[in-house]
Specification:
- The complex is a heterodimer.
- Chain A is α+β, with helices and mostly antiparallel strands.
- Helices cover about 10% and strands about 30% of the residues of chain A.
- Chain A contains 3 helices and 10 strands; from the N terminus they run E-E-E-E-H-E-E-H-H-E-E-E-E.
- In chain A, a hairpin with a 5-residue loop joins strand 5 (about 80) and strand 6.
- In chain B, the strands form 3 sheets. Chain B has a 6-stranded antiparallel sheet with strand order 1-13-3-11-6-5. In chain B, strands 2-12-4-8-7 form a 5-stranded antiparallel sheet, with helices on one face. A two-stranded antiparallel ribbon of chain B has the order 9-10.
- Chain B has 6 helices and 13 strands.
- The chains are: A alpha+beta, B alpha+beta.
- The interface between A and B is large, with 50 and 47 residues.
């Protein structure tokens, strides 16, 4: 039997295993105690990621509460992803990447006009993925907040300079998250083609839920 | 409950007289109506004054401001922390986006010349003057849980109100709900980022009188809470009053140096000008 590198080290029973196509949204409910593994299948793929509490979706991921509580901008193994009410929503229980970003936010058609020019307005963007997925459950633009970018690298220099630089990910690298409450996971498999976050080539990612 | 037979306020007219006798009372933290300020910048007519208010330690305020107006924040005693939310007044689903603000400008530190960007690729307000230099776009504000952990409680109705609950009240005065209260920026309390990602807070207290002036580039609703920074290392809940002054001003000219400073910023202004093309 061949070993599946995507599930290596995962304990428990796999209850969901899905390949999210390049550029696509993904929404999934994950119960408290379950583990979500994200696999960067081909490498250098940014995974834009939001969380909502299933019990009260006005409680949602807060980058500011998360970085304040840990006193550090980067998300690493052990980082607790916190809500806008300051409560733990999920914990990064393991990752084969040094750190992940949560200050860069998501690309949008509108911010693309600022960053690259109005010729990019019609290109697909993460915010449109988030909206498409959220709208299926009655959430809209008011529910959009700055997100996590798994497998994305955004260093901050001494003078405050900051930018999305070449990925620190590689094929098959993973991040594991344990849900600390019943959560709704909303993902945009980033379609950006104007910066190095996806090595200029969006690719599929794999989502595995185990219990 | 008072004894109705002996209380001097036992009838409505006495209660009315008692209430009316308070007129003209001055306290440190209050709005001044009509607004009055003897320190407006040169060239600003007194008639253009829109808002003069001192926000208490732990207080909040909010107001709709027209495009072109200036909002001056003064850290009176050197220990204020102005946590700011901004909404597009006519379409509040458009609001400050801290991630786009730092990403689009390729820089995380707020200061003179920087723009506060919306989630729709437009500039809501720009920073025209800054004598403080210690600001923060990363940490957001305190909430009931962080204040309870640090100070024992953090209720609006208690002695140590938290920033998020203040921003919720301020936003709700404009018909907005919990889901609308988005990540904020903090003026006067700063953070710097170390190479390993560590957040170093700059809490002071500082010299009094430091100020920031913002220019509204769209019709906006501003909501401001004045509560201790969430990473304030002091054990005691410490914050000092914040003075707010706003006056009318011209819409940003096409040759404005802040408008022209960067290609990304220029496109944010062009998107604003396009929005108001009607």
């Amino acid at each position: 039997m061949t070993v599946d590198p995507g599930t290596e080290g995962l304990s428990g029973t796999i209850i969901h295993d899905e390949l999210v196509p390049a550029r696509a949204p993904w929404l999934h409910h994950v119960a408290k105690g379950q583990t979500l593994r994200i696999v960067d299948v081909e490498g250098n793929q940014a995974v834009d990621f939001l969380l909502y509490s299933a019990a009260d979706d006005v409680e949602r991921y807060s980058a500011q509460d998360t970085v304040s509580a840990q006193g550090n901008l980067f998300l690493r193994k052990g980082s607790v992803l916190r809500s806008n009410e300051g409560r733990p929503m999920a914990t990064i229980t393991g990752t084969s990447v040094d750190y992940h970003d949560t200050i860069g936010g998501a690309c949008s058609c509108e911010s693309n006009t600022l960053r690259y020019g109005h010729h990019t307005k019609a290109q697909h963007a993460c915010v449109d993925n988030f909206l498409e997925a959220n709208l299926t459950e009655g959430r809209g633009k008011r529910d959009m907040v700055p997100n996590i970018n798994f497998f994305m690298n955004v260093p901050v220099e001494a003078d405050g300079s900051l930018g999305i630089v070449d990925g620190i990910s590689a094929p098959g690298l993973t991040v594991d998250l344990r849900a600390e409450m019943d959560i709704i996971v909303v993902v945009s498999n980033c379609p950006q083609i104007n910066n190095p976050c996806n090595a200029f080539n969006p690719t599929p990612v794999r989502m595995i839920v185990s219990v | 409950m008072s004894d109705t037979a002996t209380s001097p306020l036992a009838n409505p007219l006495a209660a009315r007289d008692h209430a009316r006798a308070m007129a003209g009372t001055k306290v440190e933290a209050m709005p001044m109506l009509p607004p009055e300020a003897d320190d407006l910048p040169e060239g600003v007519p007194a008639d253009d004054l829109l808002w003069e208010e001192t926000v208490a330690a732990g207080g909040y305020s909010s107001r709709r401001l027209p495009r072109g107006s200036r909002l001056r924040l003064i850290d009176l005693a050197g220990d204020a922390c102005a946590s700011l939310l901004i909404y597009n007044a006519e379409m509040p689903t458009e609001r400050l986006n801290v991630a786009d603000t730092v990403k689009v400008q390729w820089n995380a530190y707020l200061g003179e010349g920087k723009l506060l960007l919306s989630d729709m690729g437009r500039v809501l307000m720009s920073i025209t003057d800054d004598s403080a230099g210690t600001h923060d776009a990363f940490c957001g504000t305190s909430n009931a849980a962080t204040n309870e952990a640090k100070y024992g409680e953090g209720r609006n109705s208690g002695a140590y109100p938290n920033g998020r609950d203040r921003l919720l009240l301020g936003s709700s005065k404009h018909g907005l709900l919990r889901r609308d209260v988005h990540p904020c920026v903090n003026f006067f309390k700063g953070t710097t980022i170390e190479p390993d990602g560590t957040i170093t807070p700059q809490i002071g207290p500082f010299e009094g009188g430091r100020q920031v002036v913002l220019r509204a580039e769209m019709d906006v609703i501003v909501v401001i809470a004045n509560c201790p920074h969430v990473l304030d290392p002091r054990d005691t809940w410490s914050v000092s009053p914040l003075r707010l002054t706003a006056w009318r001003g011209a819409t940003t000219a096409l040759d404005d140096p802040i408008r022209l400073a960067t290609p990304e910023g220029l496109r944010a202004f062009e998107n604003v000008e396009d929005y108001y093309r009607r």
